[in-house]
């Protein structure tokens, strides 16, 4: 369980600690560990050419197992620990909806897909089927209709399918350090946005804010219509 207080300066290091301290934990009866599962999900997203927000949502989708008072093992003992809610609430202080909402909705997405895609259930592992019953089973038609209206639906379903695919024993993936700069860019973007909203004279750390314009090649930067932070690259200066 996460016990240290989190802030914008330390959140990436705290996430790194989760991978280091709990990464070897068994992943709910699957053939991979917790870290292997989350790193595989992020790696598969990269291979598919997904946006940085989808890659990071895939990387972080299960951190909620360590953000509440109920360890992941309770799922195997017949109790839903609602890790999707605790994880999203914990991340929401530092990341935008493009990352947070796929984390929040990845369990509901399983219920949705079981309801609307007849072939989807056959894609689930036995552990995922077992937890499905605890998590509410297939959505009722009215629930599925409401879920289909979520603004982040496409990203949510991508992360759900990445979650399902990321259970391959022995798959080689980058380690957490590979994703650390990406996480840091998005946290800095959120900090700059907060300062621009609160301060008419802008963020004092202008150089640091300008640095997030240098996103990784081929990836969407964390701003603009696709990234969702600003309508142009953040300059963190008065307008």
Strand content: under 5%
Identify low-pLDDT runs: 202-208, 210-239
Shape: globular
Number of strands: 0
Mean pLDDT comes to 80
**Count of runs of 4 or more consecutive helical residues:** 12
The SSE order reads HHHHHHHHHHHH
Rg to the nearest angstrom?
A: 18 Å
Helix percent band? 40-55%
Q: Termini, distance in Å?
A: 43 Å
What multimeric state do the chains show? single chain
Outline the structure in words.
With 239 residues, the protein is mainly α. It is built from twelve helices and no strands. It has helices at 11-22, 34-47, 52-60, 73-76, 83-91, 97-116, 126-134, 141-147, 153-165, 176-198, 206-211, 224-227. Helix 1 (11-22) runs antiparallel to helix 10 and helix 2 packs antiparallel against helix 3 (52-60). It is globular and about 45 Å long. The protein starts with 10 loop residues before the first helix and ends in a 12-residue tail after the last helix. 41% of the residues are buried. Residues 202-208 and 210-239 have low confidence and may be disordered.
List key phrases describing it.
239 residues; mainly alpha; globular; single chain
Annotate the secondary structure layout.
Elements (H helix, E strand, L loop, with lengths): L10 H12 L11 H14 L4 H9 L12 H4 L6 H9 L5 H20 L9 H9 L6 H7 L5 H13 L10 H23 L7 H6 L12 H4 L12
Helix pairs in contact: 1-10, 2-3, 2-9, 3-6, 3-9, 5-6, 6-8, 6-9
Short recap of the structure:
It contains 12 helices and no strands.
């Amino acid at each position: 369980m996460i016990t240290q207080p989190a802030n914008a300066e330390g959140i990436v290091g705290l996430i790194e600690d989760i991978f280091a301290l709990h990464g070897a934990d068994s992943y709910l009866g699957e053939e991979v560990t917790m870290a292997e599962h989350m790193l595989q999900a992020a790696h598969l997203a990269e291979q598919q050419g997904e946006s940085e927000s989808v890659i990071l949502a895939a990387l972080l989708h299960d951190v909620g197992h360590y953000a509440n008072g109920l360890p992941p093992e309770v799922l195997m003992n017949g109790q839903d620990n609602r890790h999707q809610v605790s994880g999203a609430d914990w991340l929401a202080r530092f990341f935008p909806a493009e990352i947070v909402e796929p984390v929040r909705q990845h369990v509901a997405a399983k219920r949705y897909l079981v309801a609307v895609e007849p072939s989807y259930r056959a894609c689930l592992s036995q552990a995922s089927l077992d937890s499905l019953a605890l998590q509410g089973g297939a959505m009722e038609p009215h629930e599925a209709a409401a879920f289909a209206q979520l603004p982040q639906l496409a990203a949510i379903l991508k992360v759900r399918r990445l979650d399902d695919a990321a259970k391959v024993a022995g798959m080689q993936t980058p380690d957490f350090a590979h994703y650390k700069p990406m996480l840091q860019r998005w946290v800095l973007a959120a900090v700059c946005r907060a300062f621009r909203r609160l301060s008419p004279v802008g963020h004092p750390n202008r150089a640091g804010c300008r640095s997030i314009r240098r996103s990784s090649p081929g990836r969407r930067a964390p701003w603009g219509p696709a990234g969702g932070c600003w309508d142009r690259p953040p300059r963190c200066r008065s307008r």
